[in-house]
Structures are given as structure tokens and as C-alpha cells.
Amino acid sequence: MDWGSVGVDCVNDFLRSGDGRRLMRLLGRRPTAVETAVVQVMWSEHCSYRRSKYFLRQLSLLSSAPLLVGMGENAGVVQLTSDLAVAFKVESHNHPSALMPYQGAATGVGGILRDILAMGAWPVALLNSLHFDLYSEEGKRLFGEVVRGIGDYGNCVGVPTIGGEIVSHPCYRWNPLVNVACLGKVSPDRIYRSSTARSGDVLLYFGNRTGRDGLEGALFASLPLEAGGGKSAVQVADPFMGRLVMLAAIELAERGIPSAMQDMGAAGLTCAGGELAYKSGLGLRLYLDNLPLRVGDLRPEELLLSESQERMLVAVPAERRGEAEEVLRKYPLDYAWVGELGVDGGMEVFFQGKRVVSLPLEVLLEGCPLLEYPHIQVERAISPVGRPLAFPSCEELLGECEHIFLSKEPIYRQFDYEVQLRTVGKPGSGKSLLYDQESGCLISFTMESRAGWVSVHSYWGTLAVLALAYRSSIANGAMPLGLSDCLNFPSPERERTMVDFAGVVSALREASVQWELPVSGGNVSFYNESVEGRILPTPVFVFVGKSVLTLDYLSDLRQPGYLYTTSERSFLHSEVLFFYSLRKGGYSITPPVVDLQKERRLARIILELSSRYGEVFWVQAINKGGLLKRILEHFASFDLDIHCFAEGQSEVDFLFGEGEGSYLFYIPEGKVGLEKVLRAKLRDFSFRRVAHIRRGKGWLYFNGKSFLDLKPWLERSKVANFFDSFF
User: What local confidence, expressed as pLDDT, does residue 6 receive?
Assistant: First the structure.
């Protein structure tokens, strides 16, 4: 076949574009059809970050001592002890999940697992951030399939989903967000990178066979949904093969056989091989006739760009080929030697005896024209929101926002969160912790987002989200050591999108510098929109740290005692008001304006208290749903009454309000002497007693009056609730 005749119309259209003319200038010739195809994908927004790099550059130099591997690798790595490091990352699989929700979600889990494997780390936990319209039929359908996809894949491969978040908003009806984070454990002296291959290494492909599924997946993610590809752009998951790939990759790594490892994700073999060679300062040759195939009539551009799942590419010293094959023969998977690395800095691809690609890697990976935005200035001023004369009743707020308050137990049941026996407490317990038996270390792994705050003010809203994520880590007993981000936005071709993006990145840099907290890497997902609408700017943040708690930390909360809070809270910052206003209108929210150094001072005090008294008191960040959500989650019981004291606050501020530095503390009745210690330590942070938990009949009292019968909420949470309808 004459490869120059493949896709003539597509080739000509691209070459007439600005990118095509630039490519011809860089090459000094007309590219072949296959070269054009791979460049078009590698220069897509999804692969090149052509619109976001201008802002992301300001994060690239942020680092601190615990960070062993930072931006530019498959995952970040932080060191927890002399013998333990953790690799972690968060990724999106939004477009595929909108089109084929089960497969889109499942392959999102598989992809993030292989990113962790590529660092030589064994995956030990997953988190997910799921944004849907839970009150529409389409949103319910998508959500149920996505949860099943995540659960089935994680359960089959044996990696627990230990928590996450569920958010509802109409903007996600046709544009759901499926962000998955993974954490893996690795010895600090056995970390792999994609940049350490050596000249003379041979390239080993192993895992699934190559098919047509996932073709143009990177292009699909670089366009609005209605302009993207069809179902062929969505990959197909095989979790049982995924498990075999995990076992084989870790055995190869533990025996020290590879020089470098890479997942074959977006843009398939082209991106995996090209990045591995380019980061290592090398060139490569690929031999497509050696690839294991699922179907027999694949063209060279399809072989290069297929995103068939459960495939990895590793660089192996030539003298260790036999050892690698010895490992892979143990597992029922396919493997093949598909290329070699050299010193020429180019990429050559051969198919059926002919060279079909000859490109400088610098052109392929760095030749894409990047957009710059010097005219965008981050707005720091924030306008105050006037307080309405009246708010809805608490009963109405609870009815309209029930998904915030009801138990997520029907969701948790889809996941085997105890597999590997590392999970401390189940999802919804208030702690997101993993126990590493070898080191005796408790690892904190948390995830947060608040699109409502960010949509009001991208800079201050993002600082408020980061502060909330910071407090969630502190409540786990862990000073954060690293963070990863997934920045979900609508089309970057809108000026408003890039203004918001600039505000988010600027806030992320500010928090990273003030907290000395490195950004280890992340993901940008643009074009989350369709003809039906577009999403709110939705950055998601994942924090990792080492907890000062022990396995004996206080967890038996449904017993008499006292509740305390720090800092002031306002209903104007509340997720409850934000969601209620979406449904009924008439109200505006504003993000809390946070003082990052004040948050840090408070965090250090709480960590000191947790280290000394973690077995006799409990702490949690006040999050979505405010104080009432925490009461329903952790303290409501058929035989307890909760007596709340508002001290001049309104019902809505007291029960639903949120704010900077907001923590909830619990001390059992027999340990009330500890209150004096907390008052002395937290006197500068508006520390106050807010509730007394007594034996009773399941009622919540407000300033001495019966206010809410908790029994119906307990019954719905335990028998059937809003979330049961999805499964």
C-alpha cells in the first residue's frame, strides 16, 4: 500500500492549518500521512498542554525536601520514612465517561494504576471525585454506570477505593467529571522514572494486544463533546489483564530489570515511546510488525495511536532480555520486543519493511506552538456579598439538599475498600488513612473540590478549597507533604476560561509557597462542555501526608460527650446555600477569605494535640453540610440527644455555615478535663463548646428547644435513601 495516500483529505486539511504549515517549516519537507497523524495527536491540547503551559510554568520549580519526584513524570513521589515513599497522582476520564460511562470510568482507574506502576510503586488505594447532576434522569444513569465501572475494575485488580467525594450540579448533567486518584508504596531507592533509559536499551511491550479501541482518544479529549469522536474513541477495560500487568510490572521492577517504564495511555505507543526516549536524551526505532494484535488489518497510524488498555512499555538493557522474558512467561499476557533506543534524537518507525515515520523527537514533543496570555492579570479584589434579610427554613434546606446529608453507604457498598488490609476505618468514617505494616506508618490520602467557591472568584475560591483540603489532612493527623491537582474547565478557547484558569494556578502557587508544600504534578482537562452547556471551573486537589495518629486513635464517637469548634462560620460560604440557590434561586454565596499562615499556625497546634491526645479526642474539618452534616455522620444515634448552643448565631450559620479554620472536636464525657488544654492552646482561634451529647431518644436540640428528630435520617441512611435508586 502507498502510505502517502492514506487519509489524503485529512492530511491536506491539517497541512493547510497553521499547525500544518509550522510542521512543514520545522521539517523542511511535506510530512507523510502517518507522520501527520501522529503529530496532529501529539500537538492536541490533551497531549501538548499548548494553552495551559503558559500558566503552569510557575509551578514547575516548587519543591521541598520530602519530594523525591516532581512534575514531568508519571506520578509524584514523596518520602515518608527512610524506607517508605509513596507515589500519587490524580487524573481525569471525563469525556469517555460521558459517552460510555462504565468503560470510561473503568479505564480511568486502569490508567491511573499504570501511572503508579510506572514509578515502580505497588498501588494501595484509590480515591474518586465524581461530579454529576444527581437530580436528572441522565445524570442518574451516568452516575450509576460510572460507580459500577470504578467498583468493578478496582475490585477485580485488588486495589481498594477508600473514599472521595460526590457533588451534584446541573452543569454536570451532560458533562460529568470522573477524577480518579491513586497512591502506591515504593522503596525510596527503587523509584523508576521515564527519563532514565540508556542508549542500546531495547523496548519491551507487554500486556494486552493492540486493537482499534481508543483510537483518537487524545483528540476526543481536546474537543467539546459533540465535536469529538464516537465510541471508538473510548477504550475498553480488561481488569483481569490489568491485574496481570500489575504483577508483571512490579516483579520486573523488584528485580531491577528495566531502565525506565511507561504506561501506554493517551496517544498510545507514540507518546509512551517518544516521551521515554526524549526525556532520556535519546532517539528510538519502532518495529510495528512485532506488535501483538487483536485484529489483523491495522494501519501504521492506528498501531502507533491505539489506546488499547492494559499495555506497558519498558526500556530493558539488551543483556537482560532473557531475564525480562523469564518474568513475563509466568503470566498469561502478550509481550514483544518492539524497538530500540539510540543516540540520534529522532523517531523512526518501520512497517512491512518500509520506514513510515522519520521525525525529530523535538518536533514531535516540543514543536507545538504554545499560546501565551500576557494580557491576563489575576484579580485579587473580592466584592462582599450582602446578607439577605431572611433565609429558608432548616427543614426546607434539608429537603432540597438531601444528597449532601444522607449516608453514602449505597455507594461504598460497590467497592471492596478493605482489600489489601491497609484501610483504617471505612469510607464515611471521617478519616482517610492507610496503615503500612512494614513501616508502622499511617498514611493520609485526601481529596477535595468546591466548584461553587471557584466559580464566584477563581483566586480566593481556590485558596479556600486548598485550605479545606489542608484541614482535611490535618484532621487525619498529617501535615501535607505533597499535592496533586486535576484542573477541570470548559473550552480554553473562551477568554473567561483562561482568566479563571490563571486565578486557580496563581492561588495554587501562593499556597504552595506559603505552606512549603510542593505540587508534584497533575492533569488539565479542558473542553468539558457540550451544546447543552458547560461546567463550572472545577479544580480537584489531592493531599498526601504522614499521620501522627496511632491505630488506637479515638473512633467510638456515638457516646456521651462534648463538641467544640474553632473559628467563625457563615451560611454565605455554605455548599448547602449554593445548591439550594441552584434549585430555588434568590441567593448568592462567596468563598471564605483565608489567611494561609493562620491556617498553618492552627494546623500545627492541632497536630501537636493529636500526637499527644489522639486516643482520647477526635477532630474533623467542617466541610460540605456544615456542623449538622458532621453530627448526622458521626454522632446521631437512636439513644442519644444532641443539645446545641449557638451563642448568638442564627440556626443556618450554626448548622450549615462554613469558614476558614473551621474544625470540629469531640471529647468523651469522661475526658472533659482535656477541654482546659484545648482552650489554652486554641484561645486565639475562637474555640468554643457548641454541643453536649447525652443519653436520650434521637433528637437534636437548639438553644434548649427540640429542633430536629434525627430518627428519620438514621432510618433512611440505614434502610434506603436517595443513593439506593442508582443501583
Answer: 42
Q: What pLDDT, on a 0 to 100 scale, did the predictor assign at position 407?
A: 86
- Residues 518-527 as b/e (b if ≥16 CB within 10 A, e otherwise) read bbbbbbbbbb
pLDDT score, position 452: 96
Domain count, the chain: 3
Specify whether 24 is located in the same domain as 67.
no
| Structural domain contains residue 373 | no
Q: Model-level pTM? A: 0.95
Which H/E stretch holds residue 597?
Answer: helix 596-613
Per the structure, the complete domain to which residue 265 belongs is given by: 3-51+191-366
Same domain, residue pair 581 and 707: yes
Q: Which three cell numbers stand for residue 608?
A: 501537636
Catalytic residue among 46, 169, 457, 634: 46
Q: Which three cell numbers stand for residue 228?
A: 469529538
What pLDDT is attached to residue 3? 34
> Kind and range of the H or E element at 484?
strand 478-488
The question of whether 403 is a catalytic residue gets the answer no
pLDDT of residue 62: 60
Write down the H helix ranges in 17-136: 18-27, 33-42, 45-48, 53-56, 94-99, 101-117
**Same-domain check for residues 224 and 345:** yes
Instruction: Render the burial of 123-156: b for 16+ CB within 10 Å, e for the rest.
Output: bbbbbbbbbbbbbbeebeebbbbbbbbbbbbbbb
Residue with cell string 450509576: 144
Q: Which of 93, 95, 131, 457 is catalytic?
A: 93
Domain presence at residue 372: no
Encode 60-94: b = buried (16+ Cβ within 10 Å), e = exposed. Answer: eebbeebbbbbbebbbbbbbbeeebbbbbbbbbbb
Residues in the chain with pLDDT < 50?
1-7, 228
Catalytic status, residue 643: no
Element (H, E) at 543: strand 538-547
| Domain at 660, CATH number | 3.90.650.10
At a CB cut-off of 8 Å and minimum separation 6, what does 381 contact?
none
3-state secondary structure of 151: helix
What pLDDT, on the 0 to 100 scale, is given for residue 444? 97
- Give the sign of the dihedral formed by CA 150, CA 151, CA 156, CA 157: positive
As a whole number of angstroms, the distance between CA 191 and CA 560 comes to: 48
